[in-house]
Specification:
Layout (H helix, E strand, L loop, with lengths): L3 H18 L4 H15 L2 H10 L4 H8 L3 H33 L1 H13 L4 H12 L5 H19 L3 H18 L4 H10 L3 H29 L12 H8 L9 H26 L8 H14 L1 H19 L4 H34 L2 H9 L6 H16 L2 H16 L9 H10 L9 H10 L3 H29 L4
Helix pairs in contact: 1-2, 2-5, 2-16, 3-4, 5-8, 5-15, 5-16, 6-8, 6-13, 7-8, 7-9, 8-9, 8-12, 8-21, 9-11, 9-22, 10-19, 11-20, 11-22, 13-14, 13-15, 16-21, 17-18, 18-19, 18-20, 19-20, 20-22
């Protein structure tokens, strides 16, 4: 009854059965799942989980003695701390882009550049390269308003566009530093960052290509039309799409709400990478002040807040509204964002309770004795950990910790970068209700839970397996040793 695998099974049954079978609201099903999992987890398991994370013995004991409600609330709050401001500001940015006509201006510019037929490919590659310096959820927040505007412009392929941005952002997040998971992985497995970046981009391009063809097939089998939502009513988007070019804001102004956060985040990432090799700006007061400025605004929360205010200014320049109307507008945007925050944080609480069962250690013990090739083993460990507890980053950290000793031994027939890539691809499998990213995509796109499980989840499975195949071929043909 206290085996982490049994507790996991019960949690899965409650959440999936509650949402799909009993039609419970996802927030209620996830909180109920977290409650049951926490109740079934013994205090010793919680203490050991904390110790394995490097927590001091006294703090680990204190965590195990906390009440179930307090532990759930803590994980709920931790997830809110990570995504709360991001989602709220993204809701404002998205609504402003749509209402001001900025999204329509960007879409018309993309169509002139790529043509209608190549629009999904443009979204796929854009989200992949944006996902290298920017967090996965931030890419989704920035791209989804453009997806909705593009889908109405095309009159079709809404699901294809959603899956394209999901595919690109997800693969970059687990394969290419400086994303947090790959950054930890290369340190643990002693892989040069430059090699991981180049290899990650190469493997990533193969995987997103497979993801694109799978998305085209799924879009043909079960096309899904864009739906009405509180933050983006279809009638409003259609009215904007009918505007003349002269009625829309200029392209440069339209891009500001996206470019401001993106520029600050990328600049902060670059400064962080340079600082690790020693600050190249020396004792210059001006350079130090500029760096401090970029580091402040490069925080993802501050960057999105800046983008939110830029979006409001773009809207104000296009629509002459009173203060009361502006307040009502922001309230409507935040109402839609608040629901997403609640569901996503509940998913984080459920995943956190699963982690406290010791599921990662249990899986590591089960796979330690496997006598199989290291690359498939690395993929398998990461995949099982990801599916069990929901976080791709935790899967990367767990699998790299298990295999770091093997990666540094001298008798490997291939470079350790292939093990790192296999872990990255395995960490994509399988996203479902215990993954906060699943809920972000699901709710921002207005897909139902069943639709997301039939489209987004298998998409990442296809890309992960494609990546494994490419890595095996690469290790054989180009061992790099």
């Amino acid at each position: 009854m206290t085996d982490p695998l049994f507790i996991l099974s019960v949690g899965v049954l409650i959440v999936v059965g509650g949402i799909i079978g009993l039609k419970l609201h996802p927030f209620l099903a996830l909180i109920l799942g977290a409650l049951v999992v926490a109740f079934m987890t013994p205090a010793l398991a919680v203490e050991q989980y904390a110790l394995d994370k490097g927590t001091a013995p006294a703090a680990a004991l204190a965590l195990s003695q906390k009440g179930i409600g307090e532990r759930i609330a803590t994980e709920f709050g931790n997830t809110c701390a990570k995504i709360g401001i991001l989602i709220a500001m993204a809701a404002i940015i998205g609504k402003c882009l749509l209402e001001s006509g900025a999204a329509e201006r960007i879409i018309r510019s993309i169509l002139r550049l790529t043509g209608i037929g190549k629009a999904p490919i443009a979204f796929l590659t854009s989200s992949f390269f944006l996902g290298i310096p920017v967090f996965f959820d931030t890419v989704i927040f920035l791209m989804m308003p453009l997806v909705k505007a593009m889908a109405l412009r095309l009159g079709k392929n809404y699901l294809l566009l959603v899956m394209c941005i999901m595919a690109g952002a997800a693969m970059a997040n687990s394969l290419v530093p400086p994303a947090p998971g790959p950054l930890f992985l290369i340190g643990e497995m002693h892989i040069p960052i430059g090699m991981m970046m180049i290899a990650g981009v190469i493997v990533g391009l193969f995987t997103i290509t497979a993801g694109y063809f799978f998305s085209v097939w799924v879009n043909g089998k079960m096309p899904i039309e864009i739906r009405d939502s509180l933050d983006a009513p279809l009638k409003d988007i259609r009215l904007i799409a009918a505007r003349e070019d002269r009625e829309l804001p200029p392209l440069g102004l339209s891009l500001l709400p996206v470019l401001i956060p993106l520029g600050f985040i990328c600049a902060d990432t670059a400064i962080g990478a340079l600082s690790k090799g020693g600050a190249p700006w020396g004792d210059s007061a001006l350079a130090t002040a500029v760096v401090a400025f970029i580091e402040f605004f490069g925080d993802k929360n501050i960057a999105l807040i800046s983008g939110g205010f830029a979006a409001l200014l773009v809207l104000a320049s296009q629509r002459k509204t009173s203060k009361a109307e502006f307040s009502t507008f922001v309230q409507a945007a935040l109402l839609s964002g608040g629901g997403i925050i609640l569901i996503t944080a509940a998913g984080g609480a459920f995943g956190g309770m699963l982690q406290q069962t010791g599921i990662s250690t249990r899986i590591a013990g089960l796979t330690a004795g496997y006598q199989m090739a290291l690359i498939p083993l690395a993929f398998l460990i990461a995949a099982v950990v990801r599916t069990a507890q929901g976080s791709a980053t935790v899967a990367l950290i767990t699998a790299s910790g298990i295999l770091s000793g093997m990666a540094t031994q001298g008798n490997l027939e291939f470079h350790p970068v292939y093990l790192g890539l296999a872990i990255g691809c395995g960490s994509k499998i399988v996203p479902w209700m215990n993954d906060s990213g699943f809920w972000i995509v699901c709710k921002l796109s207005n897909l139902t839970e069943k639709e997301a499980l039939k489209t987004i989840s298998p998409l990442l499975v296809v890309m992960g397996i494609t990546g494994l195949a490419v890595i095996l071929v690469g290790a054989k043909l180009f061992p790099l040793v």
